[in-house]
Amino acid sequence: MAVRVQAEPFDLGRETARLTDGRRDVGAVASFVGIARETNPDEGAAPVVAMTLEHYPGMTERQLEAVEREARARWPLLDCLIVHRYGRFEPGDPIVLVVTLSSHRQAAFDACAFLMDYLKTRAPFWKREETAEGERWVAARASDDAAAARWADATKE
Amino acid sequence: MKVLYFAWLRQTIGVAEETVSPPAAVGAADELIDWLAAQSPAHAAAFKDRATIRIAIDQEFAEPGDSIRNAGEVAFFPPVTGG
Known about the structure:
The structure holds two protein chains of two kinds.
Chain A: E1 3-6, H1 12-20, E2 28-35, E3 48-55, H2 59-74, E4 77-85, E5 87-89, E6 94-102, H3 105-122, E7 125-131, E8 134-137, H4 142-154
Parallel strand pairs in A: 1-4
Antiparallel strand pairs in A: 2-6, 3-5, 3-7, 4-6, 7-8
Helix pairs in contact in A: 2-3, 3-4
Chain B: E1 2-5, H1 7-13, E2 17-19, H2 29-37, H3 41-46, E3 54-57, E4 60-62, E5 73-77
Parallel strand pairs in B: 1-5
Antiparallel strand pairs in B: 1-2, 3-4, 3-5
């Protein structure tokens, strides 16, 4: 199990090297890095100056570990890693990292997308955005629920 | 029993957690919400829109009708927005 919840930044290259070091069976590594962005998806909304991610210590790790278990049950993964940060971020700062290792690319790609879709709807994190017009809690998006739901058809739960 | 609040529920209520001893009749999560909402105007305000509140019992997602009788920790929060 490789799940980390931390305030500190992460390094994609270093994490990938650590996962693949000494292995001869890995044929594919897929990774995703989620980054704090300035653009506010709401039409006409002020740009994001910074955001703060709050989480539920304990439950966050449990939920991320459950999502990882689910991914390992669905795809032949050789290894995987989820790193999710909390704290205050400015546009450009990396927030979340998912890395998947498999013998073949399809499992690595699919499991990486699955892990992101699932953690977005299941890991207890909440974003608060700062803009020139003030602060606001980010509302959950129906598109995130839809992204997670598409995997329900792929495999029986 | 420990009750935790996150995001705007925490802000509205003004505390991140509190230890409560509800009466024995409070057996389900939604009954705990009813009881908490009666504790102060801030609690009432935080629990006004039930549809936007998610529940975790002992760090697992739960439904409003789920039992809290053996729970050590019940958390209330808005839908999650991580990633």
